[in-house]
Amino acid sequence: MARRKKIYEGKAKILYEGPEPGTIVQYFKDDATAFNAQKKATIEGKGVLNNRLSEYFMTGLSTIGVPTHFIRRLNMREQLVRACEIIPLEIIVRNFAAGSLATRLGIEEGTALPRPIVEYCYKDDKLGDPLVTEEHIAAFGWASQQDMDDILSLALRVNDYMSGLMYGVGIRLVDFKIEIGRVYDGDFQRLVVADEISPDSCRLWDIETGQKLDKDVFRRDLGSLTDAYTEVARRLGVIPKSNGHSKPTLIN
Ligand code: TMP
Question: Sorted alphabetically, which CDD domains does this protein's record hold (predicted)?
Answer without folding.
Answer: SAICAR_synt_PurC
